[in-house]
Design a protein that fits this description.
single chain; mainly beta; Cathepsin D, subunit A, domain 1; Deoxyuridine 5'-Triphosphate Nucleotidohydrolase, Chain A; 5 helices; 21 strands; 39% strand; flat
């Protein structure tokens, strides 16, 4: 999907429109589209479709035309749903959600290597953090680290971690499974980064009147004063406890 602020309308390619189940509205055959290069593309009609951006879906009427890209998000779509285009961070934002953008011309824009900032020795059977720097900046900002083949062959595991590539240093958690120390030279590839697809900003507000679970309402062995103290303590630090599966982070070790 291409984001084009220079396009006045949103377009979808003809062959994709034929696969979509929607209310297709045919237009007169004499209507055509003039591209930025001066070429003309025939408009076949309009289609009322749901466009998924990030974690949300937006219902919008799009034009069906013979174009090269599968879909072009035009200015009409961006303005209608209050999208903000941030070219400095290479992202579009709406409703507290950040959606990363990638260069259409860069074939390797979805992969970035992380290099060791300093020479590091990982003790035998130990875990440590290595400071890294991105090999090339500006491709994307938020990413998840993964292991490169150069490191995995040395018996070193790399944890999948969410990182901000705009930071001065990127922390990479590694584990040496060998019984001998491992040396990571300065400038060596210690991890690869894949861009984060969706970034959702969750509200940080917490209700002071949050009720305790029923299992904590009747605490045996505690008097009323002690029960009150426990409730106040749990309410004060309620943001440290998980209330559902959605607020728990995930991290695994990969080889």
């Amino acid at each position: 999907m291409l984001v084009d602020t220079g396009a006045n309308v949103t377009l979808v390619r003809t062959d994709l429109a034929q696969k979509l189940k929607g209310n297709f509205i045919y237009t007169a055959p004499n209507i055509s589209l003039k591209t930025a290069t001066g070429e003309k593309a025939e408009i076949h009609g309009k289609l009322d479709a749901a466009i998924e951006c990030g974690s949300r879906k937006f219902q919008h009427k799009i034009y069906v035309a013979d174009i090269t890209d599968p879909c072009i998000l035009g200015l009409d779509f961006l303005q209608k749903f209050n999208f903000m285009v941030d070219l400095e961070k290479n992202e579009i934002r709406t409703g507290g959600e950040e959606i990363p953008l990638f260069s259409a011309s860069a074939e390797d824009s979805k992969l970035c290597s992380v290099l060791a900032k300093e020479k590091t020795i990982i003790p035998a059977r130990s875990e440590c953090l290595i400071q890294g720097v991105p090999e090339a900046s500006g491709k994307f900002r938020y990413a998840v680290t993964d292991f490169p083949s150069q490191v995995s062959q040395k018996g070193v595991l790399v944890a999948a971690t969410l990182v901000d590539l705009k930071k001065e240093a990127i922390p990479v958690r590694v584990l040496n499974l060998d019984h001998k120390p491992k040396t990571i030279d300065k400038g060596a590839v210690i991890a690869t980064c894949e861009p984060v697809v969706d970034i959702v900003a969750r509200p940080q507000g917490f209700s002071e009147s949050l009720r305790l679970p029923s299992i904590l309402e009747n605490l045996e062995g505690l008097n009323e004063e002690q029960r009150t103290a426990v409730k106040e303590l749990l309410q004060e630090f309620q943001n440290l406890f998980s209330t559902s599966d959605s607020d728990v982070g995930r991290c695994n070790m990969t080889q």
